[in-house]
Design brief:
This protein is of the alpha/beta class and 305 residues long. It has 2 domains: 204 residues, Rossmann fold, CATH 3.40.50; 72 residues. It contains 10 helices and 12 strands. The strands form 2 sheets. The protein has an 8-stranded mixed beta sheet with strand order 5-4-3-2-1-10-11-12, with helices on both faces. Strands 6-7-9-8 form a 4-stranded antiparallel beta sheet, sandwiched between helices. Helix 3 links the parallel strand 1 and strand 2. The longest helix has 17 residues. The chain is globular. The N terminus is likely disordered.
Length: 305
């Protein structure tokens, strides 16, 4: 998502759903009600494909939010080249499942990363099964970090509320993040955060346009993608990733995906990052750009429209 103009309070709240703090396993009936099919398991995965959802694969303004050709291509790649695909997003799991239904996904991903750090694998029985060890370690370390840095976070909150018109969002006493009024205001906030947190290397944040969520630097889209790859006994050389915004930069790093791409609507900073690491910048935007990037890296399926 990318916004250059100010947003009102109601719109802020609506978009904040993409950065929800609560994520719970989606009940099986929730999936069956939307008649989405679980993919047949890939017996031996050769490549992991990671797609950002909002702004990359999904275009809410499009007649088809996700092009039908994308699913045709994915089915061929899974069948012919043993690829497992997933969505790596800032959305919570329930919000993401709603997005699958709204976008009329004919098949579901093999895996998802929700809230940029929680890993779930789709089972043949139709349930989203958590990566227990990873998810548990993630939550424990984030909770411990936030508890230790309570005074610093309180200082950051005071600065944000006294010096800007941005909103600080919290839940159950834990810091959730910040919603600024404009991109320029968020740039100012990020600059201040870099100074205030320079002695705390483990405190990080995920930014998407005017939205920012605090977290642990070791748990973000990139490290989560690498954890998914390890699940399949693969490394970064066997990972493809595509994204459009600031919070995608980690998963577009060669340490996590050596086949990196972005759609034509990506932020300039993301395009520069992808180009500098030898990745591919698509000309087409959103889902069409995703198809273009897949054709670039996997030309055997270039007949898909």
């Amino acid at each position: 998502m990318a916004f250059s103009t100010s947003v009102d309070a109601m719109e802020m709240r609506m978009h904040w759903h993409s950065f929800q703090l609560l994520a719970r396993p989606a009940p099986r009936s929730h999936l069956e009600r939307r008649q989405m099919k679980a993919p047949a398991p890939v017996p031996l995965v050769a490549t992991v494909l990671a797609f950002d959802f909002d702004g990359t694969l999904h275009d809410p303004a499009g007649q088809q939010p996700v092009p039908a050709g994308f699913f045709q291509l994915i089915q061929q790649l899974r069948r012919d080249q043993a690829m497992a695909w997933g969505i790596n997003t800032g959305r919570s799991l329930p919000h993401l499942v709603d997005g699958f239904a709204e976008s009329r996904f004919p098949i579901l991903p093999d895996w998802v990363v929700a809230r940029e750090r929680e890993i779930y694998f789709h089972s043949p029985g139709g349930r989203w099964l958590p990566h227990d060890a990873w998810n548990r370690s993630c939550e424990q370390q984030i909770h411990g970090l936030f508890k230790r840095l309570r005074r610093l976070l309180d200082s950051i909150r005071h600065l944000v509320e006294q010096s800007t018109g941005a909103q600080w969002l919290a839940m159950d006493g834990e810091p959730a993040g910040i919603i600024s009024r404009t991109e320029e205001e968020m740039e100012w906030i990020v600059g201040k955060l870099a100074v205030l947190t320079r002695d705390e290397p483990l405190l990080g944040w995920q930014r998407n346009s005017v939205y920012l969520r605090f977290g642990h630097r070791d748990f973000q889209k990139g490290s989560s993608l690498s954890a998914v790859a390890r699940h399949y006994s693969l490394g970064p050389a066997n990972c493809f990733a595509i994204g459009d915004s600031h919070n995608d930069l980690e998963m577009l790093d060669p340490r996590h995906a050596q086949m990196a791409a972005c759609p034509g609507n990506a932020l300039a900073e993301v395009k520069e990052h992808v180009t500098s690491s030898g990745g591919y910048v698509a000309q087409a935007v959103h889902g069409a750009g995703v198809i273009e990037a897949l054709r670039h890296f996997f030309p055997a399926q270039s007949n898909i429209q």
